[in-house]
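Worked example 3 (structure in, sequence out).
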């Protein structure tokens, strides 16, 4: 008689095989492994030192980044107060020894800036006239009825009506004037950046010389407070790297 293997299987055996190991055994083994690691950690001083050093370094790095950011913020505040101090001294025309060349440069910048501001107003006016269909001055229009964007210093709004220009030509001329507007605005922005640098330089010089007028005492007090905070933060940074 021949018996074929696996022809008959026990239901109890199948259920045992499908269930596998009990779930609690996994957590028990994991707890044993963690306990062994804990004992190793307690016995290995070098490992403890390395772990402590890792966390300490991470903490120091975090503090360093935070305090450096605060120092930069305080220095920006001080720069703004120097700039305000220089602006006040320049506008009040207070005499500052050693700042004659800077004041002369500021006077020159102010004239150039006023010139470009006048031109910017004219350019914006011409763009508005083109887009709304108002009249333009005759000297800014050629025989072909096209505008001259390079002629930017002729005031006045009366002249040949734009109805003589074709819509396509008007649109093209408007683009030219808008391009001119961007160039003029860039010129003004560049002059303002130079102006800020010169004003801040005057402010730093006045802060160093410490003029006695009572009207400047508030500026000095604000700057001194900021300097004290900067020194305190820099001392904290030095304490992170004592050697």
């Amino acid at each position: 008689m021949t018996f074929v293997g696996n022809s008959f299987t026990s239901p109890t055996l199948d259920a045992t095989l499908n269930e596998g190991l009990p779930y609690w055994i996994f957590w028990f083994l994991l707890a044993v492994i963690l306990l062994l690691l804990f004992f190793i950690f307690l016995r290995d001083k070098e490992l403890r030192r390395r772990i402590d050093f890792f966390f300490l370094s991470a903490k120091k790095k975090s503090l360093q980044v935070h305090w450096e950011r605060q120092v930069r913020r305080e220095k920006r505040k001080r720069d703004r107060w120097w700039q305000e101090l220089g602006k006040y001294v320049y506008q009040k025309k207070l005499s500052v020894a050693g700042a004659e060349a800077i004041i002369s440069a500021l006077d020159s910048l102010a004239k150039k800036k006023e010139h470009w501001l006048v031109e910017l107003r004219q350019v914006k006016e011409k763009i508005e006239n083109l887009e709304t269909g108002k009249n333009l001055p005759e000297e800014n229009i050629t025989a072909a009825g096209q505008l001259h964007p390079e002629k930017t210093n002729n005031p006045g709004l009366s002249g040949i009506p734009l109805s003589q220009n074709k819509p396509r030509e008007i649109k093209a001329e408007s683009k030219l004037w808008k391009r001119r507007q961007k160039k003029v605005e860039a010129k003004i922005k560049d002059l303002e950046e130079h102006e800020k640098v010169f004003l801040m330089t005057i402010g730093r010089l006045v802060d160093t010389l410490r003029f006695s007028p009572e009207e400047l005492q508030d500026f000095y007090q604000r700057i001194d407070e900021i300097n004290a905070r900067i020194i305190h933060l820099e001392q904290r940074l030095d304490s992170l790297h004592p050697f």
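Notes: The helical segments are 11-19, 23-43, 45-91, 100-132, 167-209, 217-240. The chain has one domain: 59-240.
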